[in-house]
Design goal:
Length: 98
Amino acid sequence: MTDARRKAAGGERGTALITALIMLTVLGMFLIGFQALNQGELGFAGYSRNSTLAFGIAEAGEQEGIKRLNLFGAIPGTTCFANSMTSGATCSGATRGG
């Protein structure tokens, strides 16, 4: 009887090992996929952070420019600034107030 049991169990001996290996492989693939997804999210978060910082810096530069214009007496609608790097630059189309 022991020989009959061994023969019957002999065909199922490696089933648990194969099942465990398949489950570990599937779990490993899930982990690799999750890790790739996580890396992509980290990249998007970095882009968002950089965009927010750039917008804040641009807005601060705009405010600094307005402050300096007001400091030097620029009056909206009457003050004309010409490009000093271009020869013969004029203030065409500027509104001159009185």
